[in-house]
C-alpha cells in the first residue's frame, strides 16, 4: 500500500508529508535522518505507535523518551528537558528527532530540534486527527508562556511527516470530533469539492473509516501545504489557516484551556466568523448553513465563555494583533477565504455573544 | 561621515553591516524596526554606547534592560529572562531588539529575538573588537549548556549591525588584543592584502587608531559576509571561519573559560594549526612566520592546558564532529584556507602539546 506524497516547500528546505494507511508499516522508508541515528520522543497517549517505531528504529536509537501530551506541559522547561536528554545522549548535528503524539508533542519536539546544536532534523508522526490535519504541518513549533499560548517558538520544518489514520485508532471520540473541525476548516477555506465529499461521508468519518479519513486528511494537508509553501513565514496567505482562530483562541483562553478542546473552540470561532462573513464578505446563507450543519453533527460542544469583559482583553493582546489592529479571516463562499485587515473588536465581541452552532 | 555598507545575504533574508566612524552618531539612520519600536538590551560594560542609543531611541523604547556580559550568564535562563521582560512589555511581531555589548550579549539577544513570537527582528551594536569582527556577523546566536559551549541556539540574522570602532574606546587592552586575533583570522583565511596592510599597522591597531581599526574590521567583515552568504547554514565553506577554533575551543574549555579569552585560545589554536598546515597543506615557512609574528606581537597570551588526557575528550565531543570524524581548517598559503575532513585526533593532540607562538 502506497501512501500519497505531498511536499511542503519553504525556501531551500522542504517537508514531505506521507498520507495514508501503510505509512507506519515500514517507517524507515519514510522517516529521514542524515546520520541514520534517531531520537524518539513519544507521548504517553501514543504507546502503540511509539512501540511500532521503537521496533523499527531499535538498532539506531540514541534516545527513547516518553513525555506527557498535555497543554500544561507545553513549556520551555519541557523543551529544556528534551534538549538535556538529547545532549546527554551525545546528539550530533546529523541526527534526527522523531516526535510521536499529538500537537503538543510535535510542537515541543520541533522546537527542541530547532534549538539543539542550532537546529537538527526532525520528523513528525502525529497520532491525533488534529495534529494530522494541522499542527504537525508547516514548521510552526513552540511552547506556551505564562502570558499566553505559543509565545515562544521557531519555524523549523520537519523532514518527514507520517499521516497514517490508523494511528488515531484509540483516540477518544471527543478528540476525533475536535480534530475533524480542523480538517474541515482546510476544506472550507480552499476546497469546496473536498468539503462536499467529506460532508457526505460524515458518518463514516465519525466511525473512523480509514478511507474516508485518508481522503479528508490528504485534502486538508494539500490545502495547508499549498498555503504554507506560498507564504512560509506567516505574513500573507498563511493567515487564511487561522479561519475561526481569532475568537477560537480567545474562547480557549477564556475557559482556561481545560474547558474546551482546541478544535471545539475553533468550531465556535468558525460559527462566529460565519456571521461576520455574511455581513462583510457576502457569504451566502446556504454555504453558511452547510458549515453549521457539519459543526452541529460534530458537536455538541461545551458552551464557550461569551462575556465581553473576559474576551476583550484576550482579543486585544492576540499575537496576531499588529500596530494596525486585529485582522480576521472571512469566507466569501465555501472554499474561498480572505483576510480582512482591521475588524473592530466590537464586531468580534458581538459575534461571540450571539454565536450558535447548527 | 559615511560608514561603509556591507551586505550579508542568506536566502530571502539579509543583514546590513555598517562599518566605520559615524555609525553611532545617528543610529536611527542605520537600525531597523518594522514598527519603529525598540527593545534595548545592553551590557553593563557598554554603558556609554547604551546611553547614546537610549537617547536616540527614547521616544519609542519599549524595553530598556541591562544584563551582564559574562560567559557564565550566557545561558537559557538569561534568554528566558529577556523574553519574559519583552513579553511583559507587550512586544509585538513587528518590534525589534537592539543588542549593545560584546559577543555574549549579541548571542543572547539574537537567540531571544529568534524565539519570541517565533522570531522578531533584531539589531546588533557590538562594543568589543571580537564581536565587531566576528560574533555579531552571520546570524549564529546561542547559549551555553552544562555539557558545552553554544550547544543551544538558532540561525537568526540581525537586520542591521553597527560596527563603529569608537564603541571600543574603553575596552581593556587584553580584550583589544584578543579581538584583533579574530579580525586577523579573517585576513589570514581569505585576504592576503588585508593581512599585509594590517601587519604594517599593528602598532596603530594596538593604540586604537580608528582608521586602522576601521580598515581591518571592514576587511574582516567583508570576508565573513562573503563566506556566510555563500554558505548560510554552516555546511561547507563557512567552516573556514573556524580556523584555529578546533583546538581553540578545546584550550578554552580545558582552562575553564575564565583562564583564556576566546581570542587567546584561538591564537593558540591558530599557531597549532600552522604546524598541521605545513605538513598537510604545504603552508610555506615564510607565511607561517608572518602569522606567528603577528600573534607574538598581540601576545604574550597565558599558557594553555596542553595535557592530552584533558584535551582528547574535549576534541572528541566537539559539536563539529560528525559520524565521519573531526574536520579541521588548514592554510595552504596566507589568504587561502581549506577544510580537511578527517584529521586524526592524535595529530591535533601532538600539535597542541608542542605549540609555541612567535
Describe this structure in words.
The structure is a homodimer of 358-residue chains. With 358 residues, chain A is an alpha/beta fold. Chain A has helices spanning 47-57, 76-88, 103-115, 129-135, 173-190, 192-200, 202-206, 210-230, 245-254, 262-281, 285-298, 308-316, 345-354, and strands at residues 4-10, 13-19, 38-43, 61-67, 96-101, 121-126, 140-145, 148-155, 160-163, 328-333, 336-340. In chain A, the strands form three sheets. Chain A has a seven-stranded mixed beta sheet with strand order 1-2-9-6-5-3-4, with helices on both faces. A two-stranded antiparallel sheet of chain A has the order 7-8. The mean pLDDT of chain A is 93.
Strand content of chain A: 15-25%
Q: Could you report the average pLDDT of chain A, rounded to the nearest whole number?
A: 93
> Based on helices, strands and strand pairing, what is the structural class of chain A?
alpha/beta
Which quaternary structure do these chains form?
homodimer
The total count of strands of chain A amounts to: 11
Give the strand line-up of the largest sheet of chain A: 1-2-9-6-5-3-4
Rg calculated over all Cα atoms of chain A: 19 Å
Low-confidence stretches of chain A: none
Instruction: Measure the end-to-end span of chain A.
Output: 39 Å
> Order of SSEs of chain A, N→C?
EEEHEHEHEHEEEHHHHHHHHEEH
Question: Main sheet of chain A, how many strands, which sense, barrel?
Answer: 7 strands, mixed
Helix content of chain A: 40-55%
Amino acid at each position: 500500500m502506497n501512501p500519497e506524497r505531498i511536499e511542503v516547500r519553504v525556501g531551500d528546505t522542504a517537508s514531505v508529508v506521507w498520507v495514508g494507511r501503510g505509512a507506519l508499516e515500514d517507517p524507515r522508508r519514510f522517516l529521514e535522518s542524515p546520520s541514520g541515528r534517531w531520537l524518539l520522543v513519544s507521548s504517553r497517549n501514543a504507546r502503540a505507535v511509539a512501540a511500532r517505531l521503537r521496533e523499527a528504529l531499535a538498532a539506531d536509537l540514541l534516545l527513547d523518551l516518553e513525555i506527557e501530551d498535555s497543554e500544561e506541559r507545553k513549556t520551555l522547561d519541557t523543551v529544556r528537558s528534551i534538549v538535556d536528554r538529547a545532549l546527554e545522549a551525545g546528539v550530533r548535528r546529523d541526527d534526527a528527532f522523531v516526535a510521536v503524539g499529538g500537537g503538543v508533542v510535535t510542537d515541543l519536539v520541533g522546537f527542541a530540534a530547532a534549538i539543539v546544536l542550532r537546529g537538527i532534523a526532525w520528523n513528525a508522526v502525529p497520532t491525533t486527527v488534529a495534529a494530522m490535519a494541522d499542527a504537525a504541518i508547516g514548521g510552526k513549533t513552540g511552547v506556551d508562556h505564562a502570558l499566553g499560548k505559543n509565545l515562544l517558538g521557531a519555524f523549523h520544518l520537519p523532514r518527514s511527516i507520517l499521516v497514517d489514520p490508523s494511528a488515531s485508532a484509540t483516540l477518544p471520540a471527543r478528540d476525533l470530533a475536535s480534530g475533524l473541525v480542523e480538517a474541515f476548516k482546510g476544506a472550507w477555506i480552499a476546497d469546496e469539492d473536498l468539503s462536499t465529499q467529506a460532508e457526505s461521508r460524515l458518518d463514516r468519518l465519525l466511525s473512523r473509516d480509514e478511507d474516508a479519513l485518508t481522503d479528508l486528511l490528504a485534502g486538508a494537508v494539500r490545502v495547508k501545504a499549498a498555503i504554507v509553501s506560498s507564504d512560509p513565514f506567516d505574513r500573507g496567505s498563511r493567515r487564511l489557516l487561522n479561519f475561526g482562530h481569532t475568537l477560537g483562541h480567545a474562547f480557549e483562553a477564556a475557559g482556561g484551556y481545560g474547558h474546551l478542546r482546541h478544535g471545539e473552540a475553533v468550531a465556535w470561532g468558525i460559527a462566529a466568523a460565519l456571521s461576520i462573513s455574511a455581513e462583510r464578505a457576502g457569504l451566502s446563507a446556504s454555504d453558511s448553513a452547510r458549515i453549521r450543519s457539519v459543526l452541529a453533527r460534530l458537536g455538541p460542544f461545551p458552551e464557550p465563555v461569551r462575556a465581553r469583559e473576559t474576551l476583550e482583553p484576550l482579543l486585544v493582546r492576540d499575537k496576531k494583533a499588529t500596530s494596525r489592529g486585529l485582522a480576521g479571516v472571512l469566507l466569501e463562499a465555501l472554499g474561498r477565504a480572505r483576510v480582512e485587515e482591521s475588524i473592530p473588536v466590537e464586531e468580534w465581541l458581538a459575534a461571540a455573544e450571539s454565536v450558535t452552532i447548527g
